[in-house]
């Protein structure tokens, strides 16, 4: 949505230590605009997050193995919902929010949605919203729809019988998306950990060089090397730094 850059700014803040963030944007024009704004960054032109931490839903869907409703082009999360599940959730919305009886809410059918998909440029939500408006002469809200979708999925888990058509595919779709988000967030955490380690080392080294511009005693050098070893983490980069401090101790005959 249009608030993505603002939300990202709030999450990341302006401090040196920033929380790791990954971003999911829709694959439509608005999503591409958000992606450009994130790339452009703030007042100093620095991107809020790097481009490989931004997941474009349409790009991800193009590389994933998905079984979506015929004619649907995946550009927003609602497109990952099979039409049978979307209609069941929308009927619940009509039943509980609009107060319609069974005869009335069943006037919304799968065919009434799928017949509109091509005219709605492959958008499942736009087709569902139009079919809902035609059937009930009112709009369907995304928040209420999401609530009834979750309730429908919960009920399907507790019934004890076979899962309704479309539910396994929905689980697979969102499971794959969540796995992608998890992997991307893990990369973001690794980047932030590296940045924090580098900042700690820079502070130690800058302080040392400022205090000792022309040299120091072996004892003082040994203390600084111990501080550097303590500042790094148990990673490959940390191993490289430890190897460097070990070499310095050997070259300058410093106590370990």
What radius of gyration results from the CA coordinates?
A: 27 Å
Structural class: mainly alpha
Number of strands: 2
Instruction: Summarize the biggest pleated sheet.
Output: 2 strands, parallel
Strand content: under 5%
Helix content: 55-70%
**SSE succession:** HEHEHHHHHHHHH
The average pLDDT score comes to: 91
Low-confidence stretches: none
- Gross morphology: elongated
Write out the strand line-up for the largest beta sheet, numbering strands in chain order.
1-2
Brief summary:
The chain has helices at 4-12, 29-40, 57-63, 83-96, 102-105, 110-117, 124-136, 142-158, 167-211, 218-231, 236-251, and strands at 23-25, 54-56.
Q: What does it look like?
A:
The chain has 256 residues and is mainly α. The protein is 62% helix and 2% strand. The chain contains eleven helices and two strands; from the N terminus they run H-E-H-E-H-H-H-H-H-H-H-H-H. A two-stranded parallel ribbon has the order 1-2. Helix 4 packs across helix 8, helix 9 packs antiparallel against helix 10 and helix 10 runs antiparallel to helix 11. The longest helix is centred in the C-terminal third of the chain and has 45 residues. The radius of gyration is 27 Å and the shape is elongated. The model has no long low-confidence stretch (mean pLDDT 91).
């Amino acid at each position: 949505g249009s608030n993505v850059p603002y939300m990202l700014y709030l999450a990341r803040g302006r401090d040196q230590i920033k929380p790791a963030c990954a971003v999911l944007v829709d694959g439509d024009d608005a999503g591409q605009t958000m992606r450009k704004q994130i790339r452009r960054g703030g007042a100093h032109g620095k991107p809020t997050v790097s481009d490989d931490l931004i997941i474009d839903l349409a790009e991800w869907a193009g590389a994933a193995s998905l079984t979506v409703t015929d004619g649907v082009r995946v550009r927003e999360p609602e497109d990952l919902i099979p039409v049978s599940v979307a209609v069941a959730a929308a009927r619940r919305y009509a039943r509980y929010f609009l107060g319609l009886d069974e005869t009335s809410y069943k006037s919304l059918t799968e065919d009434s949605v799928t017949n509109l998909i091509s005219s709605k440029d492959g958008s499942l939500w736009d087709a569902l919203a139009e079919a809902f408006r035609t059937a009930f002469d009112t709009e369907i809200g995304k928040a209420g729809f999401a609530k009834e979708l979750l309730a429908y999925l919960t009920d399907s888990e507790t019934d004890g019988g076979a899962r309704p058509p479309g539910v396994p595919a929905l689980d697979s779709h969102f499971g794959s998306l969540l796995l992608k988000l998890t992997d991307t967030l893990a990369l973001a955490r690794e980047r932030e950990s590296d940045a924090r380690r580098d900042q700690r080392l820079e502070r130690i080294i800058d302080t040392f060089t400022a205090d000792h511009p022309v040299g120091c005693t072996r004892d003082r050098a040994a203390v600084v090397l111990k501080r550097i070893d303590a500042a790094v983490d148990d990673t490959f980069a940390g191993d490289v730094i430890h190897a460097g401090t070990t070499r310095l101790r050997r070259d300058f005959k410093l106590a370990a």
